[in-house]
Amino acid sequence: MAPGLICSRDTSLPPWEILRKLINKNYSVLALTNWSNETFPQALELYDLLHWFEGILASGKEKMKNRILLSLILWLKGII
User: Which residue has the higher pLDDT, 11 or 38?
Assistant: First the structure.
């Protein structure tokens, strides 16, 4: 593990605090979700932390399977 990274086994921090720490360390944070096209807009209104991500791909919105979405998000961000 790289110095300064947060171990995923550290259960003392809630997920949003881990996300905040990654953002504060200037990591790119991207989200891949299986929210449906119908409920994703409501989720964006309800959960402010969804706006913390640099990009979000929702499988229901994009009408793709998660493996294709993962490849797409990695390609869009220049990772692959």
Answer: 38
- Residue 11 burial class via C-beta count within 10 angstroms: exposed 0-12, middle 13-18, buried 19 and up: exposed
Tell the burial category of 59 from Cβ atoms under 10 Å away from its Cβ (0-12, 13-18, 19+).
buried
* All residues at 6 or more sequence positions from 55 whose CB lies less than 8 Å from its CB, including other chains: 30, 31, 73, 76, 77
Half-sphere exposure of 68 (CA within 13 A, CB side): 7
Q: Which residues of 17-31 are buried (b: 16+ CB within 10 A; e: fewer)?
A: eebeeeeeeeeeebb
Taking the model in full, what pTM does it have? 0.62
Query: Cβ neighbours of residue 61 under 8 Å, at least 6 residues apart?
Result: 35, 37, 40
Q: What is the pLDDT of residues 40-80, one digit of tens each?
A: 889 999 999 899 998 887 776 666 665 676 677 777 777 76
